[in-house]
Amino acid sequence: MEKEQKDQSGNFQLKADLEGNYLLNKGHKAEKNIGIFYAPSGGSVHKVARLIKQKLAGEQPDIFVISEITPFKLLDYRNLILVCSTLGRNTWEMEQKDPWSSFIPQMLRLRLEGRRVAIAGLGDHVSYPNNFVDGMGILAQTVEEIGGKLIGATETRDYVFNDSRALKEGRFIGLPLDEDYESDKTEGRIEQWLEKIRPEMSIELEEKRNRL
User: What domains can you pick out in the chain, each with its CATH number?
Assistant: First the structure.
């Protein structure tokens, strides 16, 4: 048995089963183009998220720190850019210090079919070479579980590390960044990555124009 919820305008947007698992309703359409979602606030992740927003100024993206929203906000956007810090799953489970540790379980109640998702993850390849950007891999696994389409894979040749949970078929599933030891490379890496994912984020807009 399911119950439906209304948004502030009175339209039915989401439905939930008795276990509280929210599913995307056909009436809830992603009307906005790009949403950037990041955590934590105030440090390197915040800096990277703001830099991505700056580089995408022409596309007028919205930006949110996840501690101030619910995961339902993701449903408003056709294209999502998620930015996280990482030392691996154990760190995320320590006293809920990283907002992603509580946000990810809530994401599992959503369905992201039709959305393209790009992930940027911060790591430390010197202190944690065996767990480099692990958190990005955990986040990517969640995105795939709820139907999102991952974009923005990155080759490993420009990185020094031993192992990572963010690897898939020999490539990183998103953009790894190391603000601790390679901050001088961050801006260039972001620019190259955005040039790669811009065409993919524009596909839906072009398809919509062609239907008009």
Answer: 1-30 (no CATH), 34-211 (3.40.50.360)
Q: Which tokens go with 149?
A: 């389409």
The Cα–Cα gap between 153 and 72 comes to 25
**CA dihedral sign, ordered 181, 186, 189, 190:** positive
User: pTM for the complete prediction?
Assistant: 0.82
Angle, vertex CA 75, rays to CA 122 and CA 141, nearest 5: 45
DSSP 157: T
Q: What is the pLDDT of residues 85-140, one digit of tens each?
A: 875 444 444 444 678 988 999 999 999 999 999 999 999 999 889 999 999 999 99
Q: At what angle do helices 134-145 and 100-107 cross, to 10 degrees?
A: 20
What six digits make up the tokens of 33? Answer: 């183009």
As beta bridge partners, residue 93 has: none
